[in-house]
Amino acid sequence: MPLVDSHAHLDFYDNDRDEVMQRAFDAGVRTILAIGIGEGPESMHRALELAHADHGTGRPQVFATAGIHPQEASKASDEALAKLEELAADARCVAVGEIGLDYYHVENPLPEVQKAAFVAQMRIAAAARKPIVIHVRTSELATPAAKARFGAADAWADLLELIGEYWTPTGLGGIMHCFSGGPQEAQRSVEAGFYISFAGNVTYPKAVGIREAAVKVPAERILVETDAPFLAPIPLRGQRNEPAYVAHTAAAVAELRGITVDELSGLTTGNFHRLFPQTA
Q1: Of 172, 171, 176, 178, whose CA–CA distance to 159 is shortest?
Q2: Count of structural domains, the chain
Q3: CA end-to-end distance (rounded Å), the chain
Q4: In this structure, which of 3, 232, 238, 275 has its CB flanked by the most CB atoms within 10 Å?
Q5: 23-40 pLDDT, tens per residue?
Q6: For position 86, which CATH number holds?
Q7: Cβ-Cβ contacts under 8 Å for 118 (sequence gap 6 or more)
Q8: Measured distance CA(241)–CA(259) in Å, rounded
Q9: pTM higher than 0.90, yes or no?
Q10: Domain span at residue 163?
Q11: Is residue 233 reached through a cis peptide bond, with omega within 30 degrees of 0 on the bond before it?
Q12: What is the distance between the alpha carbons of residues 177 and 227, in angstroms, rounded to a whole number?
């Protein structure tokens, strides 16, 4: 069964992108969602350029997103948001993201700055009638310095509150990318209309909550991804990740759920195309 990598930073591969895409195709990956955050708003268009490029035969088809990462929220100027609005109108841009909240690093923008950028981008996505791709890390994982700076602020709680107010009423849904919560956060995300996407960290033995969530997420809401070039799955942890390795994550999630890899591939591919029918 074909696979979809629902989250990869293809524009981060400068020297061997064609080889990376060939390996992905050889591994059964037929569709890649290229995430358009770039290295900041000034380069968030690069993923869409890749979605429009001719990659030749025997390569996965590429679709794109565009968005301002929460770590770059202080750069969500009127100009940057206008650029995002223009990119989101493109037919090959199927979602706005990755956007959200992240209180993990001490140098991240303050919560109020992140929240303002998040709400502004949800409004752009709603106007474009595009789903959103969410980045959020539980504040329990934050560095000690970040915990000291952000205090009692909780990224998951703040995120779900804003989604409930600004996003769920649109009925557009989206993806919780590189899911880092547990079964409770997964359930609340599904209730809010989201698909849950598991990355290489679901293969890590210490990721107990993530692995429990991977078992309990409804079959019709599960996706797999790489977040390449980050978070390579076991047995490749520590190496540069790439879309071909989504096969390892799919195998791990299938084992957790007690189904075959083909069954898991069929579920996740069908779910992706249901969320983004233009990619089928």
Answers
A1: 176
A2: 1
A3: 14
A4: 3
A5: 999 999 999 999 999 999
A6: 3.20.20.140
A7: 70, 73, 99, 100, 101, 159, 162
A8: 25
A9: yes
A10: 3-279
A11: no
A12: 8
